[in-house]
Automatic annotation (TrEMBL), chains A, B:
GO cellular component: cytoplasm; nucleus
EC number: 3.5.3.15
Function (record text): Catalyzes the deimination of arginine residues of proteins.
Subcellular location: Cytoplasm
Protein name (database record): Protein-arginine deiminase
Pfam families assigned to the protein according to its UniProt record, in alphabetical order: PAD, PAD_M, PAD_N
GO molecular function ontology, one term from the record: calcium ion binding
Gene source species: Python bivittatus
Length: 666, 666
């Protein structure tokens, strides 16, 4: 239904009004009618289209057709097809009649000027502004959805700038402008209309801290940009030159969606009538355009890797060299975070998560900086943030200390899934939280709220607090697969490990030892027979298996997985020194880095049987049929003994999905 | 789909597990299978139901039917029909076979105990707890919807208590308990199961500041209530007596929905397995129950009035007496707010808004205290809050001063409407906000956010800032009507007023004067002819009419009204002393109090023609055909000259809708 504007008539004097192209004028036929009048007729100039709509029965009007009975149900609407060249170009006349009279008792004359006012953006998501779009105040999801997209301009295009591009009110470069969405205000009509009408662009208080709008002034080379809305500026009187039809604005987002912000932002272009200097302006028309701020999107292991990050710390040269080799096989860029930047903190998985943000006109990676803040605290902001590389963080209030569950080894994402008819084409986020009864750490609400608010990768809560470190990457990973759903879920499995060891014992290899050739801590059982006989280790692992199975049930339900989609990777856990939570007994094989078909797996140092580690052999046997290449990396002394493995010590930036987030239905 | 739990088998030793009534156990057939085995069969005691589901083709098994091929697609599920009497009552045995062998190569035996664990509330909205409800973690709207309702326990049942009942962690009286929702935890099964399993009731951090849960202990007379969840308590270990099947809890809401709170609250009952004192507990099962906190609901003029409030201030005895008479006609309770409580503030409409909150088991009125905070500041809390009379407020941070738009004369609600297919059975809230360009006052975001978050009366923003006081009740009201939509929208209309005056002038009454018999301020034109001739007054009123018409267009669109649903009430406005915004030129007739069919209308003091005020006559002519009774009340010197009229000086509590809010689809 087009927007309707009701306009009063006068039988005293001819009046004038504006008609806004694409809307309808409704004439107040009855309001102006003299009390004696019972019927009316209409005459109009050719440029006007008018229609008469009434609910009551057609009455018997014999004199001059068409003439209509005056009553409140009659509705006269007027439209025009193009902006007027001159003011008051068209005219409509309503003549009122007494019963049975040929001579009108009064006439109301209305002059009409048509103007076009339209606030437009890329509502068709084509990368270009859609002119004269309809239903711009609605934003809809899905392949048939409509509505423009705004990026949070959280990169830093200007070398040497102190902060992200959206932390100031300047538009400094073309690179910066290209991160913004173009918004065009069309105001087309006779110049004199815009002399006694004011055009304003405005937002409400809600939008104020979430957007920045720049007005593009001047021609080509001499173009400059003025900050006109946001950060305290709620309205902008549009300066329009004579005959100027379009005003071009650039819009940037300041904030990602969050618990108190759906991501929708409304911009309004309004026309105000200034009849008289002594009287305030009255609103005539508002055009509303809604943008959605693009969410931050995570990338699962099944997406192509672009670059691999690792920290260089005292004594981990061999590890760095092995990861470098792996990265080179997978044709990834290899990035070392040097000691002065990591300050002895090797857990680069935990400090940040790579994702991206996307609009039809522009996509760039965005690093999410965790509230963990240990040695690597400054690395994401100082070294990752840059031109076309955005940055977002969620820090805790100073009185709250982050827990280990706030580290981003505890933040993963599944490949795309379909769950009982509902599509998750960007996968679902997986986070580890606590289960009441035992412990009480949790991923901070501020981080969880942010993840939920992105909407497109609906998070699933797993139970990770049974682990000393408490990260989901300690018991699960995803690898690409050529068949079925395109991936397998790998789960650490004490049961599978005991089953394997028992088979080996039955085959006469009970004396084969774990940890051959490395210095292992005192007290660890190490022959297969000893491990199997260790009742307390068995009990402990049964408990761990139950915790993993609890998560397995959640994952099966929430990702709609069957047993065929899951591979159990042999793994044992042991209690920590407090005997209250679990740590990996040998390097945690699911804590791997996945680079396309190349898997960098913590070398488990399992019992050597027939010259081969039986754990490695089993894992190869499970994964190689999927076309995957297992590369075992020794992280024993440099990572494993410090309570993490290969995944914890690496980070990977991946290609964005080819699927566009706005094409889904969350 | 019932909840599934995956359980591991062992061929080494018989194992035990719990089955939760209403769920399914999935057996890990393949995980326990010896590597040589290729087929399996199943034997089970009679109390077990099992089913075998496989995706692959039935294979040619000639020995003993039924026997199944071992592969990952096979799925064996087990259920039971009732809680077990004794532990390990039922048993299932899986026998594994090598190819072509009659003798099993291994057997896995699993003992199963069935227990019932169910957390229930009134999910059918009948006023009683629904036992063994399904899909309790979903909350759905509409007549076919399901899900329990929680009240914000914001009344004060205990005489002399300092604060609302939900501001402490005590349940003091039966009256208090009746405001809470009952929640029953059923735990049915052999006692020994509950000796090595822990039952806990828990909430997440999100719920912590939004609920209070009390555990009902002891029998009948000796009953007492212990605060077990909320306000820092996230989990409660349920103490279960021998053979105790049900534990009864009472739940209160602490907060109404708001921008960061949808109103949904989840409660979980979990069973944890404690195998061994040295090993932490592992989760086995969680039942989740979701409540929605009942919204605060406003009551339109079309609902039956219960009580009328008015302030007694210096010199307004006549006004109070007239309102008392009106209330008595309408059979309403009449409540005077005395001078010591109003502290010279007569604008009782502005300080508070009456509404209610409702659950299937209980409904009570709730006063919403505005952030306006003038003389009447303490009245709602001190005098309205009480037994079964709730209280909610939204105060601004101390650094922000409320504007006149924060007064609740600027907060109204329409009668029920249907708008292009969408039903609003509780009407829609109307608030006045600013229009950029002229002024910059607004209703505070904190109040707007609260109103939007109630969800059931989707607010409409009107433009009220063109008025000096800036309230929507200065230009609109709703009255009941026997026909059409059941109501009419009354709009103040300068056009209608000039039209009327002009007719009177044409009829020879140009000399008739306004304000006869009262002292009027200097400079006001007062004969009909003078008023019509006052060009600047005409211009000003044309501006005001445009502002009202702007709102008329919004109201027509957002409430789906036609011209037949609207009555124009003659009214003039004049500029304030700054000539920047509008005030009523004579007592503002739409600013009326509506008590059923009795309307208390500000006496306009219009020109007397044939012994009758022509404005009163016109209004009677417009409204009396609807069966309404117009009672004109003189508020000239005591209210009108102070910039308000009858509606501003009164407040009305009304009966709740008979329509239940949960039956709508917002």
């Amino acid at each position: 239904m087009p927007n309707q504007r009701w306009v009063r008539l006068s039988t005293e004097k001819a009046t004038s009004t504006l008609h806004i192209l694409g809307t309808e004028l409704c004439l107040d036929i009855c309001g102006a009618a003299p009390s004696a009048a019972t019927t009316f007729d209409i005459w109009a100039t050719l440029g006007l289209n008018f229609s008469v709509d009434r609910n009551t029965e057609e009455s018997n009007l014999s004199f001059y057709a068409p003439r209509w009975e005056l009553d409140k149900t009659v509705k006269v609407t007027v439209t025009m097809d193009a902006p007027s060249i001159e003011a008051d170009e068209e005219k409509i006349r309503i003549s009122y009649y007494k019963e049975n009279s040929k001579i009108p008792v009064a006439k109301a004359i209305l002059h009409i000027t048509c103007v076009e006012i339209s606030l437009d953006a890329d509502i068709n998501r084509s990368g270009m502004v859609t002119r004269r779009g309809k239903q711009k105040s609605q934003w809809t999801w899905g392949p048939d959805g409509r509505g423009a997209v705004l990026l949070v301009n959280c990169d830093r295009d200007t070398p040497g700038a102190e902060k992200e591009d959206n932390k100031d009110t300047e538009l400094k470069s073309d690179l910066d402008r290209k991160d913004m969405s173009c918004m065009i205000l069309t105001a087309h009509g006779p110049n004199e209309v815009f002399q006694n009408h004011q055009l304003i662009l405005h937002i409400s208080e809600v939008e104020d801290d979430k957007v920045g709008v720049f007005y593009s002034q001047g021609e080509m080379e001499k173009k400059h940009y003025k900050h006109v809305l946001g950060s305290g500026k709620l309205s902008y009187k549009v300066e329009r030159d004579l005959d100027q039809v379009e005003s071009v604005f650039y819009v940037e987002g300041l904030k990602f969606p969050d618990i108190d912000f759906s991501g929708l932002l409304a911009f309004h272009a309004s026309l105000l009538e200034s009849t008289n200097k002594e009287i305030p302006q009255a609103p005539i028309f508002t055009d509303t355009l809604v943008f959605r701020v693009a969410p931050w999107v995570m990338t699962p292991n099944t997406l192509q890797p672009i670059s691999v990050y690792v920290c260089s710390v005292d004594g981990n040269d061999d590890f760095v060299a092995e990861v470098r080799k792996l990265a080179s096989k997978a044709r990834c860029k290899f990035i070392i975070c040097p000691p002065e930047e990591n300050r002895m903190d090797r857990w680069i998985q935990d400090e940040m998560e790579f994702g991206y943000t996307q609009a039809p006109h522009k996509t760039f990676p965005v690093v999410f900086d965790s509230p963990r803040n240990r040695g690597l605290k400054d690395f994401p902001f100082k070294k990752v943030l840059g031109p076309d590389f955005g940055y977002v963080q969620r820090d805790l209030p100073p009185e709250i200390s982050p827990s280990s569950l706030d580290s981003f080894g505890n933040l993963e994402v599944s490949p795309p899934v379909k769950v009982r008819g509902k599509e998750y084409p960007l996968g679902r986020i997986l986070i580890g939280t606590y289960f009441p009864g035992n412990f009480n750490r949790n991923m901070s609400k501020i981080v969880q709220d942010f993840l939920h608010a992105q909407v497109v990768q609906s998070p699933i809560e797993l139970h990770s607090d049974w682990l000393l470190v408490g990260h989901v990457d300690e018991f699960l990973s995803f690898v690409p697969a050529p068949d079925q759903k395109g991936f397998r879920l790998l789960l650490a499995s004490p049961s599978a490990c005991f089953k394997l060891l028992k088979e080996k014992e039955e085959q006469g290899h009970g004396a084969a030892k774990m940890f051959e050739g490395i210095e292992f801590p005192e007290g660890k059982a190490h022959s297969i027979t000893e491990i199997i006989a260790d009742r307390s280790l068995r009990n402990w692992n049964e408990y761990c298996q139950k915790c993993i199975d609890w998560n397995r049930n959640i994952l099966k339900r929430e990702l709609d997985l069957t047993e065929k989609d899951i591979i159990d990777i042999p793994q044992l856990f042991s209690p920590d020194s407090q005997k209250s939570s679990a740590v990996a007994y040998f390097p945690d094989m699911v804590n791997m880095v996945v680079l396309g078909k190349y898997l960098g797996i913590p070398k488990p140092f399992g019992p050597i049987i027939d010259g081969q580690c039986c754990l490695e052999k089993e894992v190869r046997h499970l994964l190689e049929p999927l076309g995957l290449s297992c590369i075992f990396i020794d992280d024993y002394s440099t990572y494993h003994l410090l309570r993490g493995d290969v995944h914890c010590g690496t980070n990977v930036r991946r290609k964005p999905f080819s699927f566009k987030w706005w094409n889904m239905s969350p």
